[in-house]
Amino acid sequence: MKFSLSNVDPLITISTAEMLKISQEITREFAPSLSPAQTNNIVYTENFSPQEMLHISETISLDFAPKISNNANQLMLLPVDPNNIYAYWNLNKDDSYHMAKNDPIHQHLTLRIYSTSPSDTKQYKTADWHDIIVDNSKSKQYIPLPVSYQQNSCYASLGKHEENNNLIPLASSDIVAFPFGKSAQHDEQEDTTLLFSNNGFVKNHQEKVNLLNKSSSGQRIN
Amino acid sequence: MKTGFLGLVLHAHLPYVRHPEHESFFEENWLFEAITECYIPLIGALDRIQKDNITYRLTLSLSPTLITMLRDDLLKTRYLKYLYKLIELAEKETLRTQNEAELQKLSQFYLAFFQNTLDVYQNQYSGDIVNAFKKHYELGTLELITCAATHGFLPLLSISETAVRNQINLGVNTFKSHLGQAPKGIWLPECAYYPGVEHLLAETGLKYFFVDSHGIMDATQPPHNGVYAPLDCGNGVMAFGRDPESSRQVWSSHEGYPGDYNYREYYKDIGFDLDFDYIAPYILDGEIRINTGIKYYRVTGKDLPKELYNPENALAKAHQHAQDFISKRQAQIESLSQSMDRPPFIIAPYDAELFGHWWFEGPHWLEQVLRLANLSSNSVQTLSCSDYLSQQTNHQIATPSASTWGDQGYFSYWINETNDWIYPFLHQAETDMEKLAKDLHRLTLTPLQIRASNQAARSLLLAQASDWPFIMKSGTTTEYANKRITDHLARFNYLYDSIRKNRINERYLTALEMMDNIFPDIDFRDYNPNKYHG
Question: I want to staple B63 with a disulfide (CB 3.0 to 4.6 A). Which of B13, B115, B359, B525 is the partner?
């Protein structure tokens, strides 16, 4: 594309791509400032190209990828639905080492789950509990709740099971409340969420159906 | 005579998708598609109704991430570029189809649609969609409500009360700073409620929220009026329950309106149908076929060759469906009124992005529903929850059951084998953030340390979005969801480490502030749990 400028001779040639780049750069650098209510009073004196920002982002993601520190023993319970909870745990290096030494193949631990009510404290160990054998190397497990758990809350201890039914706890959880449910119509309940896909965001159920009917290009076949 | 109420609720939310570190980024199209197909058509409907002096009430939740994106200069600029490209494609289509009269009529329809979108966006509202909604909010016809800061899935964050409190408080504060007043209600992300969250809602002055039907039906006391009257959670905060019938009529894959054969077929797009060389400039990186938004066919019917879309027929059908919807609500109200001690209040909540994007005629249907409800000849009156609460007193006290509006009704879509790996990391980052805020309490900090601590809080919040585990489970753009959550956690770890070692690289910090520029007024000290417990 060529522009004839009244006070510039000869003609200056600017490609569309260059113009776009200039336009974007001007927008980036000189976009109207936000209203006072939206500013965070930081005046940026540094400029970044997208490539520089990307480099910083990638460097940080490489060097500081999330990892679990295992300095202290930890057991967490999370509610899933009225019939299941999810447990994850993290044992410190010493306890994990002893586990592997004593039971190198299975590394089994016992998760003792106590039924309780949300107002109870852990000082009062309820008689209503049950044990689940878990594999320490997996550090997580979904746990079906017994039908007898009427109180909608539980807590757990993770440890070594002894012959006299005692548990030597390595970690204990806080109390977790799980949903009390009988009315959700699991089979009939419509999934009423939208999901994000390469086809934009679409109704969840519909996308599942259509994913089955798509060619590799993403186009529906039928 | 009006004997019952209809509460139409739209939840508008998109995850924070803004990538200045790339010249262009595909997932930003989620926002651009929603502006074009959902938000601007909705604004158009509200403007027409206002012009015709129709009395109505509609509730719309605007998530803080969406508000921030809609007001972001970079995204506004990129949206205009996207829209100009669409107009260019539509213009080309009018030439390509000049020998096919019906197709050309449709291509002209799309050209006019996109040109109108540009006019509304640029000329009528100066690129400020939030302001367009605010106009109707201030008129009192549109009730705007808030949502949690980054759409965090609160039941699975609730092992830390501070995490949930910050999600809620920042949601309220973002709303206030953009809309000038405090919200009365909140849409809990994924409609996910757990007993106890009402106390945190009350702290911020919120008066009400919504739960799915089973949240009300399985409450601590049997609800006297089913889901057709709210429950007082015991602290004055009200829980309104979703009506399953009105939900099914719109959402159901089997009987829902959007599946009507006259409506536009979502899955038949010229981005996939046309010759590659022709469409290449308008698809992803010129290489990967994507939806363009130009779709020439109607649903037609199962296993039948697709027939051309006819906008007039589709709009007539939307009108017919609106009449059907209102008449069914009338029948419901007449039936319910006989057994209730107060006028029934039918709550019909939907994702806002359903209307216009997936169901192209949805905004027109909604407009017709609001117009029909205004007629004195029927018993239905649209109402907002705050209107209802100002009219009705003496509510039943009970605590709803933990619930969501997702698949199976509980939490399993957000915690399962595909996504459970995120929770130990999210919980650890939250614990670290709280410890940092406690340790820095009463210390004199440099401006750089304060900036780094605030940015750490932003990274944590962005990692907490419910969208990432949701996408992982749905199996669609899982690579992107995985990357987003690990990037935000890495950014948090980096900042945490920098602050602890007092080795903050200002250039890196500035780059992170530019990339994740949400919540400008955040204060990391709010993560000190002792702030709230003495």
Answer: B13
